Each structure stands twice: as structure tokens, then as C-alpha cells.
Amino acid sequence: MAQNEQVMSTEDLLQAQIELYHHCLAFIKSMALRAATDLRIPDAIHCNGGAATLSDLAAHVGLHPTKLSHLRRLMRVLTLSGIFTVVHGRDGEATYTLTRVSRLLLSDGVERTHGLSQMVRVFVNPVAVASQFSIHEWLTVEQAAAMSLFEVAHGCTRWEMIANDSKDGGVFNAGMVEDSSVAMDIILRKSSNVFRGINSLVDVGGGYGAVAAAVVRAFPDIKCTVLDLPHIVANAPSNNNIQFVGGDLFEFIPAADVVLLKFILHCWQHDDCVKIMRRCKEAISARDAGGKVILIEVVVGIGSNETVPKEMQLLFDVFMMYTDGIEREEHEWKKIFLEAGFSDYKIIPVLGVRSIIEVYP
Predict the structure, then answer these.
(1) Architecture in CATH of 11-107
(2) Does the chain have fewer CB atoms within 10 Å around its N or its C terminus?
(3) Which of 304, 295, 303 shows the shortest CA–CA distance to 333?
(4) Per-residue model confidence as pLDDT tens digits over 188-241
(5) Residues of the chain with CATH 1.10.10.10
(6) Domain spanning 121-360 has what CATH number?
């Protein structure tokens, strides 16, 4: 042993092993959350008057008779991680209730304000998770380095799989609708002034129009257009207040006072983001006429100072490597804006881990 090597005490060795194994098993929380979502355990609790025993849950989810003890083990992890709460009666029987997190997992068929169950399926997705196992190859092998992490693992891009697999694409697009609905509710409650005084808006990469629909409900006089790939807008629900346009954001963006991009630029590397922002600049009015670009994106290091949001920004950044995407710090965003010909910007941290960025020509 080298003389300068520090020898850990017995207690340090024990704690180091515990911490290491805890990190290794952290993915189990995500798997348990996905299982609870697929089993519709939040619905079972809700439909049972807001509180349910293990037997109540078993009956509602159609549990196999031999798996009751295993369901208890799953619920033990989910209560410890704050997805559900549990109270033990005098007889020792556990009764489970919803938390603010699990209320977001209620299905369409039950009374709810917002749902994010499909977003759980977007994040905790076998194809996304499998991609992460290729990080070593992606970082070290020349052929792999030229592709996205997803391509290394699956032989196609994430977007190609979404386009060609209707089930996978359906889950992804439904998740984006859910996320947009929650984000826009928060934005319109806390920063609706970003939409005041404008006559027209185009949502680039707007999918099925959830963001545009929220804007139109709050500001009926704003003319809203959604631009996305033809195969996506072809499946968008009809809305008389929204015009859907099929096209490529690298080629053309319809003219409007405001161009909005929600979680679009984090999918692309620097040079592509500059190209997209230049197209946005071509589409909008001059600043003195109210023209601007609105981005809804992560700005790493800006937002809540609490541990969970700060960690989530960094976890999200590594997650986005699977599409060769990136979550950026402010100086990285500024470089994109200036290279694209914009003169100024403003960051409004209203969404915890995400921010509104107003970019001005």
C-alpha cells in the first residue's frame, strides 16, 4: 500500500459502502413509481374515498393472489420516497393516502386537475433507460461518438422510433401534452404578462397544440399557429381557434409577433440551435412592435435553491444525452442568442427547474 494512501476507518468504510449501494439502487425508486403508475394505484386510492388498505388496492388493481406481500413491499418503497403516505392502525393494518405527487398520477377517468402519468412513462421508459447503458461506448468509441446515445443503443434516432412506432409515439406525444398543460397553468397564473399586448403567436414544435390552446383560452384575441412535423399535426385534435401547419423548423417558421418554443432547443446542439433561432428571428416582428421569442427551457443554476430542483436540472441534463441534447447554463444560452443576431434577453424563473426566457431582436 502506498504510504500516502489514506486508510479509511472502519466506520468510514461502512458508511462509504452504504452510500455507494444507495446510489446503485436509486433506480429502484423510478421503477417502483412506474409500476404504481401502470397498476393505477393512485386511482385505486382515489376511488376508495382517498384512503385504501393493501386489500383494497389488491382488489382494485386485479392483483394475483400470490403477490399481496410483494405489493406491500412496493408500497413500502413508495411511501418512504413520498409518493404515498401511510398510517398504521391499532391492528397494524396499513392505510395509504395520496400526496401532492401521486395526485398528478390520477387517470383521465377520475376527477383531477392535472395528470402526468404519461410523462412518467416518457421518463421511465425501457428504450430511454437502455440508452444510458451505452454511455461508456458513446464517450470512447469513434464510431459511436458520431451518433446520438439513443442511436448507439437502438440503431435509430429517438425521433425515428417515435415516428415509426405508433404506441411509443402515442405515449411520448401524450406526455408532452400533459407537461405542457401543467407548465402553461403555472405560467398563466404567475407570468401571464409575457403574452399581453401581442396579436399572433406560433408555437414551434407544438405537437398537439396544448400550449396554444392554453394561450387562446386565456387570451382569445391572440391568433395561434402550431408548427410541427406533418405526421404529428396530422393527428392533432381539431381546434377552430388554432391553425396547424406541417413543416420543418429548420426551413421555415410562419410569421407572428411571438415565436414560442417549449423544450425544443434542449434537444439540439449549439449550431443547430443558432440555426433555429435565426429562423425565429426571421419570423417575428421588430422589437418595437412587440416581437420576441419565448423559450421554456432549463437554465442550469437558475431557479429554486432547494436540493431537489438543483439536482433535477443536472439529472435532466444527463438524461437528455440520449438524444444528444443538453441543458444549458446562462452563458451558453447567451452565446446562442448573440450568434443568431438577437440583442437582449430576460430570464424569468417561474417553473422551478425551468424558466421562461424572453429573447428580443
Answers:
(1) Orthogonal Bundle (1.10)
(2) N
(3) 295
(4) 999 999 999 899 999 999 999 999 999 999 999 999 999 999 988 888 888 888
(5) 11-107
(6) 3.40.50.150
